[in-house]
Amino acid sequence: MARCDRENPDVRNFGLGSRDLDRAGQYALREGMQSYSSISTMADRWSKFAAFSQQELGVSDMRRLDTDHLRQYGDHLRERLERGEIGPATAQNLLSTVNRVMEIARGDRAVRLDPVREAGLPERSGVATTDRSVSQHDHQSALAALPERLGAMIELQRGLGLRFEESAKIDARSALARAERTGQIRVEHGTKGGLARDVPITRPEQVNTLRQVAAVQGADRSMIPAQQSYAEFRCEAYQHIRAQSIQCHGERHAYAQARYETLTGVVCPVVAGIKHGRAHIEHIAAQLGINAQEARAIDQEARLQVASELGHGRVDVTNAYLG
User: Fold this and answer.
1) pLDDT at 126
2) Is 93 exposed, middle or buried (0-12, 13-18, 19+ CB in 10 A)?
3) Model confidence over 2-46: pLDDT tens digits?
4) Residues 208-266 pLDDT 10s
5) Are residues 236 and 178 in the same domain?
6) Residue 199 near residue 205, CB atoms below 8 Å
7) In a domain, 131, yes or no
8) pTM value?
9) Which end of the chain has fewer beta carbons closer than 10 Å to its terminal beta carbon, N or C?
10) Total domains present in the chain
11) Are the beta carbons of 14 and 26 closer than 8 angstroms?
12) Rounded to 5°, angle at Cα 210 from 188 and 121
């Protein structure tokens, strides 16, 4: 392949031999990688991004791809993680492949996104070692800057542990009525696997949040404006939210951490700065004046409850939130 074509900014897909985004990425891998097995694996990962780029971003030429497009892909991968469709290692591999293809195609590293530090994907082990919750200060700053509807949604995410999609598709008026009547809300739209769950109302502030959100929702059926599709609303919302240097997932982290502390009386490992496992169990025992067996039971019960409230079926998923 002629290098002069690659240096010509007017050649589609940087002159990689195809006008098709998917195929051009595969050609880039054949040029820049040595192992056939690696090429095959990464080509499959690139195909997933190419489909997302064309269908969700409307971009079918590598020349038009920039870091913001990769951020949107990172948001998409976090949503898939939330729904339990992929694991942390898979999410990182998918984004890392995009970074590598873009590096080969461009001949530089100008368009790339660090999977953990910039995209906010969890560590490959699934056990958080860095606190990724949105601080109260950053939350308040975002509230002051975001449009009212998005501000109401991040309040829901932080106050009730909702995913972005759940907070967008909720009917806050119905949720408020149910909370006042039963002491819990039912989350059923935008959930993982379409499975509904009940989230308990444990603080008066949660009801106040629902009242405020219901007022913002107005006559709409959900938090999505009537004139927009979910995809359109999500794209616009993510741009606003990223501009505030926060991530919606970080609001759910804050909810999970607060609930764990309420349920156990001890902060979670990632907040305490204590290693997950035996060291934290010993910390719980020391803080509460109990033995290790009792501490382990308290920790497990709290994690089961947090997992349930977040809409996850496995307790080990809480490791990504709590450490």
Assistant:
1) 76
2) middle
3) 333 444 555 788 988 899 999 999 999 998 887 777 899 999 999
4) 999 999 999 999 999 999 999 998 998 899 889 988 988 888 999 999 999 999 999 99
5) yes
6) no
7) no
8) 0.79
9) N
10) 3
11) no
12) 60
Q: Residues 181, 269: one domain? A: no
1 vs 285 pLDDT, higher one: 285
Q: What are the CA-CA distances from residue 112 to residues 70, 99, 221, 322 (Å)?
A: 7, 5, 38, 28
Q: Which two tokens stand for residue 58?
A: 């409307």
Domain final position from 46, 77, 106: 106
The answer to whether residues 60 and 101 belong to one domain is yes
Structure tokens at 79: 């949503």
3-state secondary structure the chain: CCHHHHHCCCCHHHHCCCCCHHHHHHHHHHHHCCCHHHHHHHHHHHHHHHHHHHHHHCCCCHHHCCHHHHHHHHHHHHHHHHCCCCCHHHHHHHHHHHHHHHHHHHCCCCCCCCCCCCCCCCCCCCCCCCCCCCCHHHHHHHHHHCCHHHHHHHHHHHHHCCCHHHHHHCCHHHHHHHHHHHCEEEECCCCHHHCCEEEECCCHHHHHHHHHHHHHHCCCCCCCCCCCCHHHHHHHHHHHHHHCCCCHHHHHHHHHHHHHHHHHCCCCHHHHCCCCCHHHHHHHHHHHCCCHHHHHHHHHHHHHHHHHHHCCCCHHHHHHHHC
> What does the longest C-alpha to C-alpha distance in the chain come to?
71
Last residue of a domain, one of 106, 139, 163: 106
CA distance 205 to 196: 23
Residue 57 to residue 67: CA distance in whole angstroms: 13
Q: Are residues 303 and 211 in the same domain?
A: no
